[in-house]
Each structure stands twice: as C-alpha cells, then as structure tokens.
C-alpha cells in the first residue's frame, strides 16, 4: 500500500511539474486545425484576446493549474489559443517554444507568443496584444496585462514565436 501511495505521489508531481517546465522535445507540427491561418484579421484576434483577458483577469497563478481556481502561464496560453484563436497548441512552455517561426521584437504581431527566461531552468510565456503590451499569468498578480518595456520583462525576454501565419 505504501508503494502505491509513493507511486501516486510521484506520478502526480510529474504531471504538475510539466506546466512551465523545461525538457527537450521532438518537433511536432501543431499548426493543423488553424482556422485563422488563411485569412488573418488582427483586429478580430485582438478582440478575442481581450475577451479572454476579461474572462480570466485576476485568476490566480497555480503551478500546473488549468482552471479559474488557478492556472499557470502555459496553460493560459494553451487555453486562450484553443478557446479564442481556434488553434490547438501543446500544454508546456518547452513544447510551445518549438512552434511557429521566430521573429524579432521589431516585427511583433498580435497573437505572437513571447517567451522569457526567468531562471536557469524556468521559462515564462505570454501572448502579445499590441502597443507593447502582452497578457500572461503573473505569479503574484494572476492573469494580467503587462508592458514589454517593464525592466523585468525586457531584461528576461528570450524569444518571440509566431504561430499564426
């Protein structure tokens, strides 16, 4: 019985730690089922993203979370892409960072994924809105909109990926 409980605890920890984790992966094409890919309307994307933000604003950060009881950064990005942009993407930052094509900060577009290197083995992800703003899940403030020129975020900016094409 103790062995079963130990296995259950280890299995549960592994599932939780996959949220904003970093591990090596293989290439997977998640661009299929992208309803917006042929005719992008960035105003529609922006409005859909703002609707998601209004629905989730202030929801607390919870590592491994996936509901309004608590959500982590990669889950929020996955849920937003699925519910508002109609694009299925993977659950973790390590898989999300492999999507699309890399773009530089001068070419940011609404809906781009913005990745931050926040620690030796930790990543953070948000979704670019426009005018230097992005939405994400802050560990202290929950789901919020922040500015890219904030000293913390500008210092930790790692890569930008365009999934919508």
In short:
By secondary structure, the protein is of the alpha+beta class. Helices cover 32% and strands 22% of the residues. It has a single domain, classed as endopeptidase fold (from Nostoc punctiforme) (Alpha-Beta Complex).
Task: Provide structural commentary.
The chain is of the alpha+beta class. The chain has a single domain, classed as endopeptidase domain like (from Nostoc punctiforme) (endopeptidase fold (from Nostoc punctiforme), Alpha-Beta Complex), CATH 3.90.1720. Helices cover 32% and strands 22% of the residues. It has five helices and eight strands. It has helices at residues 2-17, 42-56, 73-84, 93-96, 151-156; strands at residues 66-67, 70-71, 101-103, 113-117, 123-128, 133-138, 142-147, 157-162. A six-stranded antiparallel sheet has the order 3-8-4-5-6-7. Strands 1-2 form a two-stranded antiparallel sheet. A hairpin with a 3-residue loop joins strand 6 and strand 7. The longest helix is centred in the N-terminal third of the chain and has 16 residues, at 2-17. It is globular and about 55 Å long. Mean pLDDT is 84; it is low at 11-38.
């Amino acid at each position: 019985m103790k062995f079963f409980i130990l296995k259950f605890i280890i299995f549960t920890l592994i599932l939780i730690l996959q949220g904003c984790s970093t591990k090596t992966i293989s290439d997977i094409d998640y661009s299929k089922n992208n309803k917006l890919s042929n005719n992008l309307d960035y105003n529609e994307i922006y409005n859909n993203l703002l609707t998601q933000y209004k629905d989730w604003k202030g929801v607390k950060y919870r590592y491994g979370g996936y509901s309004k009881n608590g959500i982590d950064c990669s889950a929020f990005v996955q849920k937003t892409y699925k519910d508002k942009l109609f694009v299925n993407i993977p659950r973790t930052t390590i898989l999300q960072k492999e999507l699309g094509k890399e773009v530089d900060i001068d070419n940011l577009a609404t809906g781009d994924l913005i990745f931050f290197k926040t620690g030796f083995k930790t990543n953070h992800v948000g979704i670019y809105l426009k005018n230097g703003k992005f939405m994400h899940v802050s560990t202290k403030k929950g789901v919020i909109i922040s500015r890219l020129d904030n000293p913390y975020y500008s210092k930790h900016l790692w890569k930008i990926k365009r999934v919508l094409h």
